[in-house]
Design brief:
Length: about 140
């Protein structure tokens, strides 16, 4: 899904301080900010050119940076260029490498724990002591 900039009509401005031609752009920017709270607008557009520039920044972010779940967590630009298979293969390689590193760390930790213990690891059943069945009473 790609966003397009459409020409906006100028309705009557509810605020007399805002020029009529900028009012609809401020409404659009407000809606975009609510739709994507992670995207912050540091400046309020004061002119029509400022508003267009800010909207173009958002459209560029939406199409080239933001990952879209509906198209496999790639950007629309990558999807249109046909790079999604390459991106997914790279992700799979990274995930497999991370799994292998975690497994290796777990093995190293386990071997260090057993290397430092002075007594061999034994398993006992409930009611059994390390000395054997000496603590159990027969019925």
């Amino acid at each position: 899904m790609r966003l397009r900039i459409l020409p906006l009509r100028s309705p009557q401005s509810p605020d007399p301080q805002i020029p009529i031609n900028v009012a609809p752009l401020r409404i659009v920017i407000g809606l975009l900010g609510r739709a994507n709270p992670s995207l912050s607008w540091p400046l309020t557009p004061l002119t029509l050119d400022d508003a267009r520039r800010l909207i173009q920044l958002y459209v560029d972010h939406y199409n080239t940076v933001r990952l879209h779940s509906a198209i496999g967590y790639v950007t629309p630009q990558d999807r249109l260029a046909g790079r999604q298979a390459e991106i997914h293969a790279a992700r799979d390689r990274k995930l497999e490498e991370a799994r292998n590193q975690r497994q290796l760390r777990r093995q190293q930790t386990a071997s260090l724990m057993f290397a430092h213990s002075s007594t061999p690891a034994t398993m006992t059943s409930p009611g059994e002591t390390e000395a054997g069945t000496a603590g159990m009473q027969l019925c």
